[in-house]
Amino acid sequence: DVSLGLEDQEKVGIIGVNGTGKSTILSLIAGRDEADEGTITMRTGLRVSYLPQDPSFDPELTVLENTMAAAKGGDEQWDILGEAVAMLGRLGITDPDLPMKILSGGQRKRAALAAALLSPCDLLILDEPTNHLDHDMVEWLQDWLSGYRGALIMVTHDRYFLDEVTSTIWEIDRGKIYSYNANYEGYLQKKQERLDFALASERKMEALYKQDLAWMMRGARARSTKQKAHIQRFEALRDREKIVEERNAVISSLPTRMGNKTIEISDLSKSFDGKTLFRGFTYTFRKTDRIGIIGPNGCGKSTLVRILLGLLPPDTGKVEIGQTLTFGYFSQENEALDESMRVIDYVRDGAEYIRTQDGLVSATSMCEQFLFDSASQYTPIASLSGGEKRRLYLLRILMESPNVLILDEPTNDLDIQTLQILEDYLDHFAGIVIAISHDRYFLDRVVNRIFSFEEDGTLAQSEGGYEDYRLHLLQREEPDSLAVQPPAPKTQAPRSHQPKVKTSLSYKEQREYEALEGTIESLTARSKELDDEIRSASADYTRLVELTTEKEAVEQQLEASIERYLELEEMIETIKNQGR
Fold first, then answer.
1. Residue 279, SS3 per DSSP
2. Any bridge partners for residue 172, and if so which?
3. What is the pLDDT of residues 184-241, one digit of tens each?
4. What is the full DSSP assignment across 43-58?
5. What are 393-450's pLDDT values in tens digits?
6. pTM of the full structure
7. C-alpha of 324 from chain center
8. How far apart are CA 198 and CA 525, in angstroms?
9. Dist. CA 378–CA 381, nearest whole Å
10. Which residues sit opposite 151 in a β-bridge?
11. Which among 195, 235, 501, 545 counts the fewest CB atoms within 10 Å?
């Protein structure tokens, strides 16, 4: 019984738990499926372009031929040949004449995205457009869609992306769709207001139901004179769909004991087909490390973690693993699930119970925490959606109680609610987390150090999350705006020339200023951690040297960040005074 309308140039983001029907409603609007009941009415002549979750192509044609065929350009489609080649290149497909059949799943999805964006349309429908895009591609697509002049409906789990692009959120929840006239941040506030109101109404109905129940249970004489309307009201209250307050239970797992030796990487290098992916990489993981690994597609991120797991050999260098480490690996591709198994049996194959700080938690309870209710736990895996299978695969890994958790693109195909559960779990995970992700929100939420793949094959390190990394990048690329410049020759400007008065910070300066406070907090916290580690490592000379060196580097970075923050504060104050 869904009734909704879409305005011209409205930009809608659809969110909801996996399996609730997000892709289904996109397919219905795109005309690929038919509804059981009701109608979908479109403006006469409305042109629709659709990116499905799993696009299909002719494997015998080239990437460019398939893209052009899917772009729906009619007889004039070859007029956009150059634009198609440029867009494929922007999405990481630099050889458009490759046969489609040799492309990976991620490359096929990017080719389909290029076709959808190139198709002339009034309504653009995108199902998970940010999957398989690296950070630069996501930010480019975000800017492209922000400037798009038509209507847009999309499913994505990238929360920063939803914030920047959408003007409306449609939330699918228990077979209903709620519309919020807001971006993702506004949706969170409006949803909480809706839930608070609904829960207050539920409490009133529960109180009324208890009164009526007491009335109904009086003696036989009273029952003989009951009013029909009163009885009907009682039955309506009894049979109503009850609203249950969402649980926000914290799962604090107790992983296998971790000894002093964790993961030690020494002078690691790897090349493929003459291309150096990384070289000379050395790092010793701390027990509480939260590492985010970023870089363009194909740079070697998954290769690096596969070497750590012993699944691939390095060209040079070595990886030493502590004997007490237990790995949990959430790969991009699900393991081969036995689809005849029931959900609960698959989870129990991992473990019957998981130890937490509050005691043992059963597989059944963990299923409920990860959004598999009592009914769905006994359904065969074959009946689950692709996203539900990813959630189940994640739960199975967590049930095995690892103390090193490696997540390769965990945000692909996981809904926002599951991501929030995972993020809360990682807050209380007493072990090492290594995450490859293009999701900027997830990285800012979870990690405290970034490894970024550079063009020269090195891995750069920066403290903090993704926005902190971006700030470090800006500081590296831009000269100090307050640096003393050499005086210009007198011939370049007349004596009467006056320097232009600055009326505001530049966009990059403003972003830098906003991020610096978090950077300073992160560096200060790390400095305190190092003080504690130095005290406890006084008997280990080698470790003490490593910690002292890092402490000096952190202090230098902290001092530079504070100095820059004060400089920008002074600039803001100067601009304010000029305005007066």
1. strand
2. 177
3. 988 888 888 887 777 777 677 777 767 766 666 665 444 445 566 666 666 676 666 6
4. -TT--EEEE-SS----
5. 988 988 888 889 999 988 887 888 888 888 988 888 888 999 999 999 999 999 999 9
6. 0.70
7. 31
8. 41
9. 9
10. 123
11. 501
